[in-house]
Design brief:
The chain is mainly alpha-helical and 468 residues long. Helices cover 53% and strands 1% of the residues. It has a two-stranded antiparallel ribbon. Helix 1 packs across helix 2. The radius of gyration is 26 Å and the shape is globular. It binds heme C (8 copies).
Length: 468
């Protein structure tokens, strides 16, 4: 293949005429020079489906993605780098789905985090290492509350993209350059550079579930037709590029009006605040889950400890930025629709009742985890209320779990680990049918951390009594 492209290159110069021939001729100069500079890129590209389209479809050329302004060995700063829009010119459906889906919010969601802004530039900006390396799957330039936009996100018309020479293409997160294959993106390993480790070890969970193990035993093919489902089978059914799940990353849902009004009986002293909060929440019911008032209250405490609700359980700016604009949690309508679709996928291979029981079990694990977590939160909150801990400089909320590892006390470090590591693993492990993650990396350390916090806070109180 490589050889035939080069032969064509020496032959084409004589039939420049039609636009197509011009395009080909230009491409031959790109290829002819780059074969000596980056032969790896040329080899990948000319073997790729886009350079070898079906009959009657024009082959894609370098200039379709990099422009035609750079043509010599010295003017390469004129080459442009593609964005998702560039790919969207020819793949409108996938482009529109990506834009509507959760991946598109990855960059915005990352920047909404207080912990991101606290990082040194070496950690959070240079060279796409760390947070931004994974989160570049999202669209740059979305503006939210920090930029004074309080409703729907707005777009900055490309200003932020201009600050980054590389890394704006988004689609190449799963279809890597310069091969851009469908089969690569269908392989669960294509998700695994990002969906692994600390707070979202979905790859490890999958590989310790029967689903992943069967996929592996049967030759780890990318196929959609194996005995066991892949990530894509469950999350990108029918090639839908809008990935989103019912519970979402943090396993939180937006409480409904009815959920919150039911708290009046349980915590009557806070009635005024419950009514104020309920007025701002959606109507509706969540399917499947058992929202007893204790669970709603436990979840409200989690939202409070993350600064999403304030001391009086009222929504803060973080509520707008994280819950509404980043879509980190769903309301009932969306939750029910996505869950119904997900269950349909399981029904292709499992009985309805089997699936219902599986979801019920996993929902109840979130409930049990939330109750343990809430005990730990109450203990740390009371250390602040009783003056045993002082609110750190620059913090608006305390405790503030979203300060992550920047917190200075042992009890708050443990709270952070419960939220981002243990609770995540317990519920994500349950949904992904990984007993290993659900229990030994999830529930077990969660319980241990709660015990540590309760014990530590007793000691801190005793020390304060001795040494007021
Ligand atoms: C005469 C040689 C030559 C020709 C012709 C040429 N390039 Fe290049 N190109 C270069 C060199 C040299 C570099 C710098 C590469 C390096 O530093 O490794 C470069 C870099 C690039 C880059 C990377 C720019 C960056 O900022 O990283 C792209 C993309 C590119 N060329 C695309 C093209 C396209 C598209 C064409 C045809 C329209 C083309 N090139 C034609 C020599 C050439
Ligand atoms: C100028 C039009 C054009 C642009 C721009 C373009 N593509 Fe394509 N793409 C094609 C054509 C033509 C095919 C082959 C069509 C086919 O196989 O039916 C294709 C096929 C594909 C496939 C399927 C390959 C396979 O394995 O069957 C993927 C994935 C893909 N493109 C991704 C991308 C990405 C990502 C970008 C942006 C970085 C992009 N395309 C930009 C025209 C384009
Ligand atoms: C380049 C890194 C990267 C790759 C590759 C990647 N993802 Fe993601 N994914 C993310 C990030 C970051 C988010 C969080 C998006 C946000 O902030 O809203 C996410 C979110 C998701 C969600 C939504 C979870 C929710 O909140 O409901 C699903 C589902 C998902 N990814 C599945 C996949 C699948 C399946 C693949 C492989 C085909 C994949 N991802 C490949 C980084 C990646
Ligand atoms: C379908 C779109 C597409 C086509 C066609 C395409 N590229 Fe690229 N190219 C990309 C993407 C995406 C990147 C990564 C950009 C980024 O990181 O922002 C890239 C990056 C590059 C880079 C710099 C990054 C690196 O890895 O060194 C070079 C050089 C380059 N392309 C050369 C070429 C040449 C030469 C051709 C033709 C043989 C070509 N490209 C065809 C999409 C394309
Ligand atoms: C058998 C189907 C199935 C497979 C295979 C699967 N998932 Fe999931 N995934 C689920 C279900 C079910 C949920 C939770 C749904 C809910 O919120 O009710 C979920 C949740 C998620 C979430 C969002 C919430 C969370 O737990 O953080 C992400 C991200 C995710 N999966 C990614 C992946 C990745 C990546 C893979 C492959 C390594 C994968 N999943 C494999 C079914 C699957
Ligand atoms: C999260 C990973 C991921 C991202 C990001 C992604 N894709 Fe895909 N893409 C896939 C998967 C998985 C498939 C195969 C779907 C299936 O099974 O039919 C696919 C299939 C495709 C196909 C082949 C469609 C067909 O069946 O012929 C095209 C074209 C494509 N994607 C283009 C894009 C474009 C353009 C973007 C950016 C706007 C993009 N993809 C972003 C995972 C991704
Ligand atoms: C290894 C890749 C990776 C790194 C590094 C990474 N993330 Fe993520 N992040 C992800 C993935 C994947 C998800 C989605 C997981 C899920 O839904 O279970 C995610 C989810 C998130 C979410 C939740 C988005 C939502 O609304 O669902 C936020 C916020 C976030 N990350 C911020 C950050 C910040 C800030 C950093 C650095 C301090 C960071 N991430 C580092 C891959 C990464
Ligand atoms: C393509 C077929 C397929 C799909 C789709 C599928 N599974 Fe499975 N699942 C299997 C196979 C095969 C096994 C292994 C059965 C065994 O252990 O005997 C399995 C095993 C399981 C197990 C472990 C069973 C046990 O006895 O330990 C659970 C739990 C499970 N699946 C849940 C789900 C859920 C929930 C969904 C949807 C989110 C789903 N599966 C989608 C094929 C599928």
């Amino acid at each position: 293949m490589l050889r035939s492209m080069i032969l064509i290159f020496s032959g084409t110069l004589c039939f420049i005429g039609s636009a197509l021939a011009d395009k080909q001729a230009l491409n031959n100069t790109c290829v002819g020079c780059h074969i000596n500079i980056n032969p790896g890129i040329i080899k990948e590209f000319i073997d790729s489906p886009m350079a070898n389209p079906p009959e009657k479809v024009d082959a894609v050329v370098c200039a379709d993605c990099h422009g035609n302004q750079h043509t010599t060995a010295t003017d390469y700063q004129k080459a442009t780098m593609p964005t998702a829009e560039t790919c969207g010119e020819c793949h409108i459906q996938q482009f529109e789905q990506l834009r509507e889906g959760k991946h598109n919010l990855a960059w915005f969601g990352m920047k909404s985090q207080i912990a991101w802004h606290g990082q040194p530039t070496a950690i959070n900006q240079t060279g796409y290492r760390g947070c931004i390396g994974c989160h570049k799957i999202g669209q740059k330039g979305l503006m939210g509350i920090a930029q004074g936009v309080s409703g729907q996100l707005e777009y900055d018309d490309g200003k932020e993209i201009e600050q980054y020479h590389y890394g704006n293409a988004q689609c190449d997160a799963c279809h890597t350059r310069h091969s851009f294959r469908k089969t690569e993106a269908q392989d669960p390993r294509a998700c695994s550079n990002c969906h692994r480790g600390f707070e979202h070890p979905q790859w490890e969970m999958y590989m310790s579930s029967k689903h992943g193990i069967i996929w592996d035993i049967e030759g780890n093919k990318e196929t959609r037709h194996g005995r066991a489902p892949t990530c894509q089978y469950c999350h990108m059914s029918e090639g839908d590029h809008r990935v989103i799940t019912p519970w979402g990353f943090l396993g939180l849902r937006i409480p409904t009006k009815r959920n919150v009004l039911a708290l009046i009986k349980a915590e009557p002293s806070l009635e005024k605040f419950w009514r104020q909060l309920a007025a701002q929440l959606p109507e509706g019911e969540y399917m499947d889950v058992d929202d007893d008032p204790q669970w709603v209250f436990d979840r409200a405490l989690i939202l409070q400890a993350t600064g999403i609700l304030d001391a009086n359980f009222q929504p803060t700016q973080r509520f707008t930025e994280i819950i509404t604009q980043s879509e980190t949690a769903r309301g009932p309508e969306e939750f029910n629709e996505i869950r119904r679709n997900m269950k349909e996928i399981c029904h292709e291979c499992h009985a309805k009742n089997f699936v219902t029981e599986h979801f019920k079990a996993a929902d109840n694990i979130i409930k049990a985890a939330d109750h343990e977590f809430a005990k730990a939160i109450l203990a740390v909150q009371s250390l602040y209320q009783d003056g045993i801990l002082e609110v750190p400089k620059d913090w608006t909320y305390a405790p503030d779990i979203l300060q992550l590892y920047n917190a200075e006390t042992r009890v708050e470090q443990e709270l952070y680990l419960i939220m981002l590591e243990y609770r995540q693993r317990a519920f994500q492990g349950a949904f992904h049918a990984s007993n290993h993650y659900m229990h030994w990396y999830g529930w077990a350390p969660l319980k241990a951390a709660v015990n540590t916090i309760l014990e530590e806070s007793k000691k801190m109180r005793a020390a304060k009594k001795k040494n007021p």
